[in-house]
Each structure stands twice: as C-alpha cells, then as structure tokens.
Amino acid sequence: MLRVVLFGMPGPLAGAALTALLEAGVTLAAVAVPAPPGAPPVAPPPRSSAPARLIPLGPPPPPGLLDLAQAHGVPTLALGSVRVPAVHEALRALSPELVCVACWPWRIPPTLLAVPRLGFLNLHPAPLPELRGPAPLFWAFQQGRASTAVTLHWMDAGLDTGPIALQAPLELPVGLDWDTAEQQAADLGAALLRELLARLAAGALPRRPQGSGGSYRPAPGMADFAVDPGWPAERAFRFMRGTAAWGHAYRLPATLAAPPLSTVLAYEPTGSLGTPLVVQGQTVRVQMTPGILVARC
To answer: What is the count of structural domains for the chain?
Structure first.
C-alpha cells in the first residue's frame, strides 16, 4: 500500500486532497501544515483554527484540515521551515513513497524533494505553464479568463515548473464567485489525484514536460485591485465578482477622481456614457472599452 504524506494549508484544495487520499486507501503517514512564525522547525500543529497565513491577502481559509486528519487517526505536524536538517530527518522518519502538496507557501529544496521514492506531487489550480505562482485563481479572475485549469505536476527545484502528471480544464462562467471557484478547483484536483493514484497502482507514472514559455504572477498586493477603464466591461465584472471575497476595495485611475468601488453590480457589454464616469449616490457607472461597468462605492 502506497505510503503518503500530505503538505497543505487549511482550505478547500488541501481538504479535498486529504479526502481523496483517505478514500483511495493509501497509508497516510502524516499531514503537515506550515507553522506560525517563530515556531520550531517541527512541532505539533496549533490547536486553534488555522496556522498563521503565510501568503499575504486573500480570504481566510476555513478550518477543518487538521480536524479531518485527526478524526481519521492521521498524525499531524507543523513545519516552521523546509530548509533545516530537522525537517529532512522528520520526513525521512515518516518513510513516504510520495508527498502530495496542496497550497504550500515555501519552495521545497532539492534535498527534501529527493526523500520520497516517487517524489513530490503538487496540485496547482492553473493551466501550467501559465499562471505559475502562489495565487493563480486570483490572476485568472484579474485577467478576465473564461476558463482556467487544475494541474497535478511533479515538483522540481523551480516554482511550479515540474513535469505535468495530469491536467483538466475548469470553466469560469461570468459572475462566478471566489468560494465556488475555489471549491470547484478543489473537487477537480481531488478527482485528478484519485486518477493519478489509480494509475500509480497500475504501474504507470504519467509525466510530460511543461510547454515552453508560460507565465509567473506573484502574490497579489493592494495595487493589483486596480480596475482599468481600458478593459472590456466583462473583464472588470469577472474580476470584481470573482475576488470580492478578498474584502478589498477596487480603485479606478486617480485621474478619474472616483471613489473606491466596493461591490460590482452589473455590466453592459456595449454602450456609451458620453463621459468617463457617472456617480449617482452610491452607484458608479464607468465607461469601459467597450461597455459600461456598474458598481457601488
């Protein structure tokens, strides 16, 4: 029976991955989460909800990953670093043949990647090689994409650059919200993980190099919640609706002297205001290219 360790941050992606591993009947040696700043390299996980967030911004993750592991008798631990000998020794002591990763804030060093016989396998909600980096769903919404993907790939020394094991498309219909998108990505990732485990059990080891090119986007900052009137109205609507759960105001260019936008209400794909901006009470109508964006300030 395959012996597996899961590295993850509390949230839908890691929770769905853990459920898939439990249902697959593998031997789960441990679930590891990132420890809060200042914690020792290897320690029991915090008993409160989730470890401190280590990727800036974003909606708070729901609890449940550690509770689910503990309910099934899976050992849990918190790692304060992945670059110290104590963590290397702790992983070797668990004797994993495979490490699955779902939302992990630090790059895994080659010495750690070499511990499991099969390697490290990462769930990444993006169409790799596009949208490498820590918040791919945010950037898919920010770019107004109508679809993205979930990729299961083997990890190497780069960041989201390793060979692809499996990949499947994920539709992003107009008006999709963050929580729904994240859960759909998690469910699709779990399905890919189950398929991969079945292939491994049958003796297959799917892997293909990522295509050339690709893109990397960092963790979003406050400046990334800007809305450009040069965008189509549909793009701005997709972005604001999809990332509203992050709880940040959206800003138009300073030249418009517009108030920050809090909630998107609607959009018109075509149409002209005859002026860049119309403010009526708390409702703001913005001339886009093309179309009109309707939001609340």
So the answer is: 2
